[in-house]
Here is the input.
Amino acid sequence: MRILPKTLKNLVSSFRKLSSVGQKTAERYAFELFEWSTQETEFLAEAVRAVKNKLTRCDACSCIKEAGASCPFCDPVTRNEEILCIVSHIKDPFLIEESRAFKGLYHVLPNLFSPFEEKDIASENIQRLLGRLEKLPVKEVILALDTTLEGDATALYFQNLLRPRGVKVTRLAYGIPIGSNIHYFDSQTLHQALSGRQVLT
Amino acid sequence: MRILPKTLKNLVSSFRKLSSVGQKTAERYAFELFEWSTQETEFLAEAVRAVKNKLTRCDACSCIKEAGASCPFCDPVTRNEEILCIVSHIKDPFLIEESRAFKGLYHVLPNLFSPFEEKDIASENIQRLLGRLEKLPVKEVILALDTTLEGDATALYFQNLLRPRGVKVTRLAYGIPIGSNIHYFDSQTLHQALSGRQVLT
Here is the structure.
């Protein structure tokens, strides 16, 4: 809508920066906000601001943490320092924690190799990871990367980089997600699920 | 995710207040915002705040307008005061303006009658509408209401209220939306489209 008041237009253009939010959705959000209470909009404005002011990335693992606080993902008392999980997005450590299947360390390496784009993992990130591996008693590195071309290329890179250092390198199991019907999956997923089948007794 | 930092949780809970935004979408938005520049988050925070501070509803028509400025929907110079359109949502006048088919006045009456809820149009809103109709040279009132049970009940109410006052009361044409396939529509819509068919030459 071209004739919106400028104040609403600003809000719409800001919401549109969120991925998969189009013009209509952004307009809907803006009109909804107008009907919120002042208290609710103030809370949102403060929360938006706080994301930059009160959160930061951990210098060691690059996970999100409250600024000024120590990183809960790097705590040597509660975490198992013999196992380190490489993920490609800041959201992933929180998801993996939810699973309660992992108590080791994390390392976020945001840039994956891409066969289509000229995009490399920044060498400073690699150096920081290698520095951590030298200091920490890590015996196993889990590659928790996407099962895409980019994820595969990155996994291969780490495999070659880490194996000569005497570190065990593993990847998440491929297969069928919990709660899904077999007939929805592609042949490659089924192939992996069959190859990786497990004995039940 | 229960273990998110409090700062992110605040943002997630705020985004979840938007209709059709669930937990996963709200978390996605929050993580995306963390990767925005400070400039971008400040712009959004300010835009959210401005929606309450810089916008207001027009005292006459209840449309959204910039606070302190005159209402563009009530301007006696550019608007045709002989025709007034009743809508049920603050977004509707902007949508109708986009159509360029209407240059009259608007009146937003947010609450529709509902056969399922104990909800009535607040009588002060009705009084304000009747006050405007007495002051203005309105000859026709267009009911641009939803084609739902609530919309129909409200339309009937206005029809009975306004007809004795010598005002012509009209409703938007029912039919098939532009750009759609006939076979997607229900029999009631087709019935209306047939009843309201127009001679072509």
User: Anything to note?
Assistant: Residues 78-201 of chain A form a domain with the Dna Topoisomerase Vi A Subunit; Chain: A, domain 2 fold (CATH 3.40.1360.10). Chain A is about 40% helix and 15% strand.
